[in-house]
Amino acid sequence: MKNSVKIIYTLLSALLLFSCREKEAIFADPYAGGKVPLGVKFEDAAPSPAQGFPGTNVSFQVTGLLPYKDKLIFTFNGEKASVTSLDDKEIKLKVPEQASSGVVAIQIGDQVFYGPEFRVRGKLEFDATYKALIGSNGSIIDQLELSSSRKIITGSFTDFEAKGIVKPINRIVLTSRDGEVDRSFQSGKAANGTIASIVELNNGKFIIGGSFGAFDTHSGGNSAIFSMTQLNSNGSLDTTEINTFLKKDTVPTFNGGTDQPVDKLLIYNNRVTAIGSFRYYIKKLYNIPTYDQQRDSLVLDSIEMRQLARFYPNGALDTSFNYDLQARKSYPGPNGFILDALMQNDGKIIIVGKFTKYNNTEVNNIARINPDGSLDPSFNTGSGTDAVISSIKYNSTTQKFLLSGTFSKVNGVPCYNIAMLNANGTLDASFSPRQVTDGFVTFAKQLSNGLIVAAGSFKRYDNVTRGGFMILNPNGSLAKDYNATGSLNNGDYSSGYINNIQESITSSNETAITVYGSFSKFDGTVVGNIMRLTLKK
């Protein structure tokens, strides 16, 4: 076959060569009629100054601009600047009020000339006291703050701060308040798959959930794990000794789980509610022999529990939650997908996502569930939203909920991608989101000072360039001086996202936010899926 191809290729080459010799063809210039070069060029020199606040006067070394002084448009990351002076070697401008860090550009007619990056300063800055500079090599999904101010970080990563070379760091790590790895955590090889969520029990132990089937050295057989398990306070797997049909064995104490991944765990009254794409609750039965009574046979008992299930700390199913005693399975639950959820202080759960019914009652993408799993009709969201809700967050200070997603209406009222709800579920009309361009808001959370952190795939908000990250005022407008930072994930809006943020107070009494998710850059700086930012006063 290879020889045949070679022969055909040789014949075609010979024919082409003969054709060229036979007649020298003359073709038209394919570039004829194109735009004549304008002779504009950014010189290889940094702007002066190299960074500055909005309103700062800055100069760039650019040649060839003088003939076009009345036609050019100069932008800082898409925001138009006013020219203060111009000659044939230099242009001076004032940094626009709404400018953010990014590439500068000159547009003359339909031709664009790109220059260097310019960092715009503002009141949002990296926290210099945060020690996690490398971060993780995979997504960070959850972060649990302990009473000691230390934090347990979970996700899909297999390294954190490049500390996992000698001793593995698989999907779970303990850090100090400032992001330094704490080696007192004894998780061993840890999980063999993503840990999506972690909660703490009253006794200081932890329940983790995700998409894993083993933890440390425990895997398969009696030690098989089904998306959930319990850890001791030091991070080791909590185990117990059981009697099988023929022998004793050491197995995970938490005997329960699900047939598909768990996305989120919520805790109330020391019982854990799992939310995910699962259909069945699973429990292991250890004392069953094979049919010939000669060997142990691991038997799995399963109960249909769609997307929601509540567990006791030992893994037993709590059948007082959304369970039909006669049918011996869960009630239908949502008829679509749950994308986020939160637990209220009274034990009620709010779920959001893409669904139109809960337990056969019409709801649209949002519902509040009573502690027994029944629908709470007092949560007055009206007709819900007209499209997907990807995130819901609650602020205990303002007592407001923030929704984000692809929706454009909430209870029939125009509301683009972000909505604020009162404690009873009604729409808060004081928050008026502006138009989002080229993408969607997928995350939004209000801080205790009223400011709102929002992120997503969008490129502009209220016709101002924002690269997938912004700080809003409580009324929905862009917060002055807090939106000078460049893009999240360096402009690759489709691949970076934020899972959550945690608020804290710095030693100088300023608000700080630890942001985590899946992103590799922010404001032109390399970060590993986690960073801490300070909101200056």
TrEMBL record:
Cross-referenced Pfam families, in alphabetical order?
DUF5008, DUF5122
Superkingdom classification of source: Bacteria
- PROSITE patterns in the record, alphabetically? PROKAR_LIPOPROTEIN
Q: Spell out the InterPro entries in the cross-references.
A: Delta_60_rpt, DUF5008, Ig-like_fold
DUF5008 domain residues are 25-116
UniProt name for this protein: DUF5008 domain-containing protein
